[in-house]
């Protein structure tokens, strides 16, 4: 033992170094991954907003093109004199201009660039447009619909850019232009409303020659053209994409998403300030760094004290070696006792928790993995279905084991209904018979009358099986296990082994002839993870689950046991006055879907997201996908045709599923919300009335809830006739 002390010191010193290096390395790896993730999210967002700007710009440009074509057709046989002097013609085009908010003015210039007509004033004021690029380019040759540079208008005095088409004389020679001006402020106001303020965004329309038509925030007196050799312009190639570059106007580094306006030499651009991306990453890193620092500090402090203690022990050991052998032997015995005690304590705490749970879960995983391997080797559908049935049974057992943990903490979702406890116990009899040995004789003494109770049937069955397994383990050489049901009336001063309000109760008594329990064990039977079984043979959650079930059902549990005389467990449940729940096909209770729904799936876990999408596609619905709350909100703002929001509770990005649901309903009041969670007792869920789907869930569970929500959605549409046409058109668009 003494010779191993230097090795222990080296090990502790290595752990001391690792306590700093490992958290630092983990923090670095997390930082790299989180930055890439945040950058990818920003690229996706920039591209989406660029697409929104492109669609808006295309609609405006097409509207202006139609107005120009209409104006050209109307002026085909109108002379210059009539243009300058006809108030009727001016009024006609004034109304045409006012019919489209995108149109700032309609104007005509003659072959020399002098103004003949403008909807801004009548009669027209003489202005010279011969220096404007939209006039110069059309004079050189027919450019079709030409988009000019951004100017301060000579008449309006405001920032505008103009669209022009060429007028030709009968001999085909140049005879002037017809133009439409568009206010830059119209576009700026729209861009101000769509961008995300947290992006410190910039939106621009840029011609492929570098001329800036619109930019928000406004450029003011800055240059409105970017040189062709600027990296910004060199990155604008293709129809759409993203790139990082320095702003040619204010020098800010930005991440840009762009998309070319279809049919026009113009790019729609959305820029995100790199500092906001960095700030988001740093905010994430601050939390991670705080956690890493706390872990490193704890590890370092522990290792330092261990090293100090080890050094002291080494010094003491060296001194003890110089003393008598008797003292050395005493110290050695003492250290062995302390080590044994610590080991026993660790085994007791860790073994009770991990041993039993690992034993049960490993058995279930063995069933799942083995059947999956066999199914992979089978081609016969009947054989594969039999193997899948075994896998489903194992997964249900795993779900039941998880439910035991939640039951004790009273954090699981209960599904109570009124049933006859006699029929449920009779149905559970087959499971009980398979759970006990052949040398155990079973006795059932059920009540002749119906005994209605309002309970969660699955929790009741799990509790009865737990009691049967405990009784079996207490009778290794066989014995008798009896189940009896009777009604009891509890009045004032009635003597019962439990404290319950006065009333009528149903008592389930489970009695065995096993070894019984000593008083010190009986006093601890409800403690979680407490068990007298060998490590790996039990979780210590059985009676905790039964205790939680009885309390959640409004009843109580009592245990009477004596060593050598067996154990009697009594569960008291309030007698229900409600009608018994009828067994029926759950799908038959809900009408079939009248149409597929558009469902927004929000889930950060890739595998859970994949299986959820697969189930919904299998049910015939159309899916939109988001990985966090920010992405989901962007989709909800961009589309009003979403019927159902299907979201997890815990997600990255600072927006929980419940917060997302509240914001989504505020945006779309008709939206239906379905929240899935592996922790149904989450405090946020208890404060809201959203539909809940506990994990793990099956395709049938999902189908039932989706049908119910679509039925509610159809009812809302039916209750609002004025909105019915809009809702139907949305579904047809889907």
Structure commentary:
The chain has 734 residues and is of the alpha+beta class. It has a five-stranded antiparallel sheet, with helices on both faces. It has a five-stranded antiparallel sheet with strand order 7-6-10-9-8. The protein has a five-stranded mixed sheet with strand order 12-14-15-17-16, with helices on one face. It contains 19 helices and 22 strands. It starts with a helix and ends with a helix. The model is unreliable at 342-353, 407-411 and 722-734 (pLDDT under 50). It is elongated, with a radius of gyration of 39 Å. Helix 9 (381-409) crosses helix 13 (542-552).
Quick structural gist:
With 734 residues, the protein is α+β, with helices and mostly antiparallel strands.
What key phrases describe this protein's structure?
single chain; 734 residues; alpha+beta
What's the SSE blueprint?
Elements: H1 5-74, H2 80-85, H3 87-98, E1 105-109, E2 115-118, H4 133-140, E3 146-152, E4 159-168, E5 174-183, H5 184-194, E6 202-207, E7 212-216, H6 231-234, E8 240-246, E9 253-260, E10 266-273, H7 274-321, H8 325-377, H9 381-409, E11 417-420, H10 421-435, E12 440-445, E13 452-455, H11 457-473, E14 479-490, E15 503-512, H12 519-522, H13 542-552, E16 556-562, E17 566-574, E18 598-602, H14 606-618, E19 622-626, H15 629-638, E20 644-648, H16 657-667, E21 672-677, H17 683-686, E22 691-694, H18 699-719, H19 721-733
Parallel strand pairs: 12-14, 18-19, 18-20, 20-21, 21-22
Antiparallel strand pairs: 1-2, 1-5, 3-4, 4-5, 6-7, 6-10, 8-9, 9-10, 11-13, 14-15, 15-17, 16-17
Helix pairs in contact: 1-7, 8-9, 9-13, 10-11, 11-13, 15-16
């Amino acid at each position: 033992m003494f010779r191993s002390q230097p090795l222990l010191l080296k090990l502790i010193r290595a752990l001391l170094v690792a306590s700093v290096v490992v958290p630092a390395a983990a923090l670095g790896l997390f930082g790299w991954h989180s930055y890439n993730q945040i950058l990818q999210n920003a690229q996706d967002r920039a591209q989406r907003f660029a697409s929104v700007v492109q669609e808006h710009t295309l609609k405006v440009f097409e509207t202006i093109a139609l107005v120009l074509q209409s104006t050209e057709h109307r002026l085909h046989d109108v002379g210059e004199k009539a243009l300058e002097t006809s108030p009727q013609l001016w009024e006609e085009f004034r109304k045409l201009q006012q019919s489209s908010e995108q149109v700032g003015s309609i104007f005509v210039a003659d072959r020399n660039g002098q103004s003949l007509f403008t909807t801004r004033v009548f009669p027209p004021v003489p202005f010279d447009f011969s220096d404007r690029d939209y006039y110069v380019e059309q004079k050189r040759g027919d450019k079709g619909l030409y988009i000019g540079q951004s100017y301060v208008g000579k008449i309006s005095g405001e920032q505008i850019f103009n669209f022009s088409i060429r007028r030709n004389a009968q001999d085909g020679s140049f005879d002037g232009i017809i133009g439409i001006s568009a206010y830059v402020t119209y576009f700026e106001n729209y861009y101000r409303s769509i961008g995300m303020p947290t992006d410190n965004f910039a939106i621009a329309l840029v011609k492929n020659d570098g001329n800036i038509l619109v930019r928000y925030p406004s450029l003011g007196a800055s240059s409105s053209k970017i040189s062709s050799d600027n990296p910004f312009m060199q990155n604008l190639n293709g129809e759409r994409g993203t790139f990082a570059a320095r702003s040619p106007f204010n020098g800010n580094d930005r991440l840009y998403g762009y998309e070319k306006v279809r049919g026009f030499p113009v790019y729609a651009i959305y820029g995100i300030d790199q500092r906001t991306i960095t700030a988001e990453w740093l905010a994430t890193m601050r939390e991670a760094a705080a956690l890493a620092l706390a872990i490193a500090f704890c590890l370092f402090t522990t290792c330092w004290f261990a090293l100090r203690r080890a050094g002291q022990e080494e010094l003491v050991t060296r001194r003890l070696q110089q003393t008598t052998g008797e003292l050395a032997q005493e110290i050695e015995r003492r250290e062995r006792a302390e080590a044994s005690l610590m080991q026993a304590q660790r085994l007791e705490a860790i073994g009770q928790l991990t041993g039993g749970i690992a034993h049960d879960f490993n058995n279930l995983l063995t069933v799942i993995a083995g059947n999956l391997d066999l199914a992979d080797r089978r081609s016969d559908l009947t054989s594969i279905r039999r193997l899948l049935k075994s896998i489903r049974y194992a997964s249900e057992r795993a779900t039941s084991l998880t439910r035991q943990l939640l039951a004790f903490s009273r954090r699981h979702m209960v599904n109570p209904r009124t049933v006859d406890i006699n029929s449920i116990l009779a149905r559970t009899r087959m499971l009980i018979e398979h759970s006990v040995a052949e040398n155990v004789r079973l006795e059932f003494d059920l009540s002749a009358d119906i005994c209605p109770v309002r309970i969660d049937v699955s929790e009741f069955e799990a509790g009865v099986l737990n009691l049967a397994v405990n009784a079996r383990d207490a009778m290794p050489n066989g014995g008798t296990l009896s189940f009896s049901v009777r009604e009891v009336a509890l009045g004032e001063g009635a003597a019962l082994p439990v404290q319950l309000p006065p009333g009528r109760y149903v008592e389930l008594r489970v009695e065995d002839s096993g070894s019984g329990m000593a008083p010190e064990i009986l006093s601890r039977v409800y403690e979680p993870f407490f068990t007298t079984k060998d490590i790996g043979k039990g979780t210590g959650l059985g009676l905790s689950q039964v205790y939680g079930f009885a309390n959640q059902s409004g009843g109580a549990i009592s245990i009477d046991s004596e060593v050598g005389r067996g154990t009697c467990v009594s569960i008291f449940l309030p007698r229900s006055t409600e009608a018994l729940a009828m067994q029926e096909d759950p799908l038959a209770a809900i009408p079939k879907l009248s149409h597929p729904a558009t469902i927004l799936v929000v889930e950060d876990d890739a595998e859970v997201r994949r299986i959820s999408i697969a189930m919904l596609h299998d049910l015939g619905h159309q899916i939109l996908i988001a990985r966090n709350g920010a992405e989901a909100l962007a989709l909800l703002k961009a589309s009003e045709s979403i019927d159902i929001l299907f979201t997890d509770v815990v997600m990255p990005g600072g927006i929980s599923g419940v917060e997302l649901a509240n914001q989504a309903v505020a945006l779309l009041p008709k939206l239906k919300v379905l929240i899935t969670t592996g922790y149904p007792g989450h405090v946020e869920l208890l404060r809201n009335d959203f539909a809940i789907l506990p994990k793990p869930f099956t395709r049938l569970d999902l189908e039932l809830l989706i049908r119910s929500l679509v039925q509610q959605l159809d009812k809302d549409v039916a209750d609002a006739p004025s909105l019915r046409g809009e809702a139907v058109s949305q579904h047809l668009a889907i």
